[in-house]
Design a protein that fits this description.
Rossmann fold; 21% strand; alpha/beta; nine-stranded mixed beta sheet
């Protein structure tokens, strides 16, 4: 079975992947480096689906009481300041950290959208993100239909994997818009959680997203209803999101910089946050913090615990929600 998986709506070229939006394509790979397009093989939609089902079927079946050890099919959605090569490198490192070896969480799929890969292209990238959300909606809608089938056969053929999402920076805006459309397309379902764990890393979305009177309240309601638990990882030291807010001049403060506007949002007890500022040493600058969550600073074990479904109080009691390196003594 493939070791790496990618769904992309970038244009493809003979020497790599472009920066414009193109048709949705599906890719698999068995080896890195993943920022070399020759190490990827493009496959047909049905082949990708069948290989993915076969890979997930190899996961061990778990008793109900061992839910925390159940394997994941995780979607990783990169942020706005990532060209294809940067996004591929980050995905490869994330797989090495969380989806390989004896402690692997399962498998991870990169949803690759055509970010222009430059801070100065923030506004064009936001437009790209909004346009690309429709392609992710198609993926999530098909996944939802598959989960409904699995739910109906769960008594005789239990599901071996749970679906999770890790979204970074403006990738959270892609996820927000995609899930809102999927929620509407599927007639606002309440009986099935599409996503078990959504980890919003340095989210470049409005921080009142999940408030009833928020600027994107309808979107937030959709995301909350399609997800079992949402965790926002944020830091007030994130200078990239400070610049993002300055470039935009619309909406509210950024979730990934200021945290939730209301904690917890009224009527949404499945949403919580972790201030990750204390994980990053003083010598990690504000521009670097935006991506430091994926570095070796203690936030990766936190992500692992969140994805496994450890209770918030357990994560707190284990000391996994607080770092020890900042502020400096």
């Amino acid at each position: 079975m493939p070791a790496y998986w990618m769904i992309s709506n970038r244009t493809t070229q003979t020497d790599g992947v472009g920066g414009a939006r193109g048709p949705l394509t599906l890719w698999v790979s068995d080896k890195g480096p993943l920022d070399n397009i020759s190490n990827w093989q493009q496959v047909a939609r049905d082949d990708f689906k069948n290989q993915l089902i076969a890979a997930a079927d190899k996961f061990p079946a778990m008793d109900q009481g061992d839910n925390e050890d159940q394997s994941h099919v995780t979607f990783f959605v990169h942020g706005y300041n990532n060209g294809w090569k940067d996004a591929a490198k980050r995905y490869e490192q994330l797989c090495a950290d969380l989806y390989s070896g004896a402690d692997s969480l399962g498998l991870c799929i990169s949803f690759d959208w055509p970010s222009l890969g430059s801070v100065i292209d923030y506004l064009p990238d936001r437009a790209h993100a909004r346009d690309c959300a429709g392609d992710l909606t198609d993926v999530l809608s098909q996944l939802y239909d598959w989960l409904l089938v699995k739910q109906q056969t769960a008594t005789t053929n239990p599901c071996k994997a749970k679906v999770s999402v890790i979204s970074h920076s403006m990738g959270n805006y892609v996820v927000q818009k995609a899930m809102a459309t999927a929620w509407t397309r599927k007639n606002q379902p309440l009986l099935v959680s599409l996503v078990n764990q959504l980890v919003m890393v340095a989210a470049d979305v409005d921080n009142d997203l999940f408030d009833a009177d928020g600027s994107d309240a309808a979107d937030g309601n959709a995301v909350a209803n399609l997800t079992y638990r949402i965790t926002a990882l944020y830091s007030g030291r994130d200078a990239v999101l400070g610049a993002s807010a300055g470039l935009k001049h619309f909406g509210t403060r950024r979730l990934g910089r200021s945290g939730l506007a209301t904690q917890p949002p009224a009527g949404q007890d499945n949403i919580w946050q972790v201030d990750c500022s204390s994980f990053f040493p003083d010598n990690v600058g504000g521009m670097d913090i935006h991506s430091a969550y994926f570095g070796q600073y203690g936030t990766l074990p936190l992500m692992r615990g969140i994805l496994r479904g450890l209770d918030r109080l357990v994560l707190d009691a284990k000391g996994m929600t607080k770092g020890t390196v900042w502020p400096p003594s």
